[in-house]
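Input.
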Amino acid sequence: MNCLKKMTGLTVVAAALLFAANAGAQETKHYRFAHDQQLNSGYSVAYDIFSARLKELSKGTMLVDQYPGAQLGQEPQILQLVRSGDIDFAIVSSANASTIAPQSGVMSLHFLFRSEDHMIKATGDQKVFEAIRDMIDDTVQGIHAIGLGTQGFRNMYGKKEVHKVDDLKGYKVRVQATATEDTMFAAYGAQTVHMPFGSVYTSLQTGVVDFGENGVNVYFINKHYEVAPILSMTQHEANIAIVWISDKLWQSLSAEQKQWVLTAATDVSQQEPKRAFDLERSAATKLEKLGVKIVADVDKTGFQKIADPYLDKLSKELGPHADKIKTLIRAIN
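Output.
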């Protein structure tokens, strides 16, 4: 009888442990994090930071799976899928974010950021992030900004060297579809062409466009140097990105889970920019070994002379949120 009681007790304990294990397993959820870049990019670094921190804070109950390389669509499509709740998290350029929030184009203002150090400080600045978050919350439904990142500065690349602003006159440049970029490149005398990022390689190859413009590492990992072997370091614009969460997911989270998500996203804002610039330098070294010509002595003063009057003009035209963001960024030393 004692043996039976003992066995029954063990069975109850085992059942309780099994129930607890199953309950724990049921609490673990997987979430989708999408972007349009390859691995070893600033975007995948952002994913690594975010997913590792969220896993740690949630004790393994919130696991984030990465969908890189536009597996779930190009950036405008990704944004719409986040808004509909079909994608949970994403990192998308602020320029392409202007397709749903036009004032996001403020981050595409040319020479808004003075240096690498200035950009790192700005993307990690809480007031700058809050201004961007508020802009999204006030103007867009179904999606929220939770962090910031970068892929360095954007530079020109093609089959022709760019030493000064006049070298762009009359040439076709693929740009992101923002009013800011259309205005700025037209001011330099170039013709702007819009297309998804995934079409840039073949368009450079076939001559549909003469120049692309992007970060050094983006140019490298997407092998654009194969069809555009000259990289001119114009550093005309920042490659700022926003980390997103769908409102559908946000509303389903507990207060504690929301705090975990925000903490993980803050880690991205604080850590990713420096690592992104490390990737830029590493990519430049690899490109030179591959025989890519890097034009370092670009006279940026001609570009800046044209661009500077647009900083205030365009930010005001975009709207009050954009103007506030521009002012906050410029005030950072």
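The longest strand covers residues 230-246.
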